[in-house]
Amino acid sequence: MGHRVNKIVDVYRQLSRFPEPVSAWISNLSNKTKIILNTQWSQSDLERKEKVKFSRDYLLSGQPGNINLDFRSPNREISNELWNEESPSGSQRAVVKKVTKKDEDKYFIEIWEGTHKSQCIDVLAQSKHGKIYENDDQFGSFVWSYSEKSLLYIAEKKLPKSVSYFEREKKDQNKEEEISQGSEHFYKEDWGEQLTSKHLSVICVLDLESGDIQVLSDVPDHLFLGQACWAPSDSGVLFVGWDINPYRAGLIYCPIRKSSVYYLDFKSSVLKTVSEDGRSCRSIRVSPDQSKLVYLDNDIGGPHMQGSRLMMYDWGTGDLNVVSDTVAAPAADEFPGLCLLGLPKRCWSEDSSRLVTSSVWRSSVVGLVFNVKEKRMARITPGNKSYGVMDVNQDKIVFCCSAPNQPHYMAVADLPSWGSEAELTPIDGQPTPLTDSKYEVLTFIPTDDRIHQKFGKMDYEAILMMPKAEKEKPPLIVFPHGGPHTLFPTSYFRYAAGFSACGFAVLMVNYRGSFGFGENNLRSLPGLIGDQDVKDVHAAAEIVVQSGRVDGSKVAVFGGSHGGFLTTHLIGQYPDFYKVGSCRNPVTNLTNMIGVTDIPDWVMVECGLPFDHTIIPDGEQLSQMFVRSPIAHVDQVKAPLQIMLGLDDRRVPPKQGEQFYRALRSRNVPARLVTYEGNSHPIITAEADADAFVNIVSWFDTHLGLQFT
């Protein structure tokens, strides 16, 4: 086993050397013949046990379809940097640095121009606000004004200093500092999983000429502010405001919370709602000519991931229109509606007539272009890989490209003429596809006994990765995704590639209810979790086994979150088929999950029950939750199970996994519990991610009785 463990470690070490793109930015100093591209990447450093971030810049030249790499800068590691934003003219750059000195966090805004740093501002010294929000994909923003005289950003609201009732006033205490006596233990509500330090936010404007910071105050207290940007002509600010009443539920991965797009006019101090009432909004993007803006909106409540509408607001007339609506039941090759968390930060064509983004389309991520006036959509990338749009500027597009057996790389393309496919040019060449695996997308049609009563017959897909051909059939890892309303796209995923490199076939199943197959497909699952999703995954596994391509006597199952829910269900409902399982932060008992998770609505919705903030489940509802829970089948489990838990998980708290572990141990089923401090719902710190991979593969090796040379 020692030799095999060394092989597993080596596989992970090799795959961790492929960096992942964080951002790409076409400099505003670019022109028609020269492209200056700034990129940032992330890579695990296994010796330092941390993820390092570094930048790399490129100078590209040439014509469409014939772009040359003229210069590539050396990699430069980035530390303490929260934001790095170029001004509209490209002549300046603003950087936010977080520096910890004597256990105190300080925030500096640096302004760079030409060959030097022209300003460095200690923003907390003015005592106007707390920490500056990072680029968290939820609230944070850091934006130059059109005039380049000001910067707009989101920060934590400064509250009075909390002191004990019994603390005596200190002689040297700052008399101007506001004190709140006896409030140091008051509960501070946050936004749950991965947003635990976000309590109350404010919009701040830094005047670069005077250095003064203004905190905008003309905003109702019931709104939490984020995703701010400048309104046309710097006349005010646009932002998303989330309603915090009566209490906040988890927001990350859940773009369904009540929110609106607002405009605060500086001259009149009037706050205006731009978006349609009764919706959930995000991703405000103002057109280059400042004549209009677009944003995404969703229903409030329901499945946490669902198709979005693309909305457009005309700044001159005040008209609000739907550019792209949701799609209920697309045919197999038809557009399934916009399926994405957010629009690229820059997504407009130069003439403000078209918008470019990427979106999930069945089991791929594709590039799309919308004519916003004519409300037309065209696809600009093929479907055999995944193509994520990272930036659009001066009618140039930067894509992040990958495939299940090909690590991420960046490519550039000109915005194509309508109806044409973009001609992508890899910036640094393409990484060689991993020789240890190949993949294909399989389509499954449910049998007659599994046809949905309301929505009828709907197909679903899975991505099958096969390892390098060996004399013997490979063991199979069945790998359902979490969510449940997310999916596995044909993108690079280190774990799947690693499993394949270790000799396993991997079946990543996009069961009915997954993102990207239309709204009927997605909404077919609530009320049927633990049944429809379990049967879809198992049917796909059985078909692959029956094809004779894998060893049906050596089938493992692995998943996280709802994928862990399915893992624990599958070994309970099909105890003789799955020989071993491993899961991360699994949902195992819905009856007690509802009282401890940051998303109690998820439990009700997925069980097909109505939710509002006053709901306290009664006995009948709790009974429905129990029968849909994996714990209801624990007496049938035979397969050894490894459970991995992030101890800071607010989404699926660790007690869910612990309860299932204890239930298995008391029934003499082999079980192992692995816990990771400093990890929340996604177990993604460099050390934990690496350790978990080795433990998963070695656990499968042991309990499948595998002998590798």
Textual characterization of the structure:
The chain is built from 10 helices and 38 strands. It is of the alpha+beta class. Strands 31-32-34-33-35-36-37-38 form an 8-stranded mixed β-sheet, sandwiched between helices. Strands 1, 2, 3, 4 and 5 form a 5-stranded antiparallel β-sheet that branches. It has a 4-stranded antiparallel β-sheet with strand order 6-7-8-9, with no helix packed on it. Strand 22 and strand 23 form a beta hairpin. Helix 1 packs antiparallel against helix 2 and helix 1 packs across helix 10. The longest helix is centred in the last third of the chain and has 19 residues, at 686-704. The relative contact order is 0.08.
What is the gist of this entry?
This protein is 15% helix and 35% strand.
Mind sketching the topology for me?
Blueprint: H1 2-15, E1 20-26, E2 34-45, E3 50-63, E4 66-72, E5 76-78, E6 81-86, E7 92-101, E8 104-113, E9 116-122, E10 142-144, E11 150-156, E12 161-163, E13 179-181, E14 201-207, E15 213-215, E16 223-230, E17 236-243, E18 259-265, E19 271-273, E20 280-286, E21 292-298, E22 309-314, E23 320-324, E24 354-361, E25 364-371, E26 376-379, E27 386-393, E28 396-403, E29 406-414, E30 425-426, E31 437-444, E32 460-467, E33 476-480, H2 494-501, E34 505-510, H3 519-522, H4 532-546, E35 555-560, H5 562-573, E36 580-584, H6 590-593, H7 600-606, H8 619-627, E37 641-646, H9 655-666, E38 671-676, H10 686-704
Parallel strand pairs: 12-13, 33-34, 33-35, 35-36, 36-37, 37-38
Antiparallel strand pairs: 1-2, 2-3, 3-4, 3-5, 6-7, 7-8, 8-9, 10-11, 11-14, 14-15, 16-17, 17-18, 18-19, 20-21, 21-22, 22-23, 24-25, 25-26, 27-28, 28-29, 29-30, 31-32, 32-34
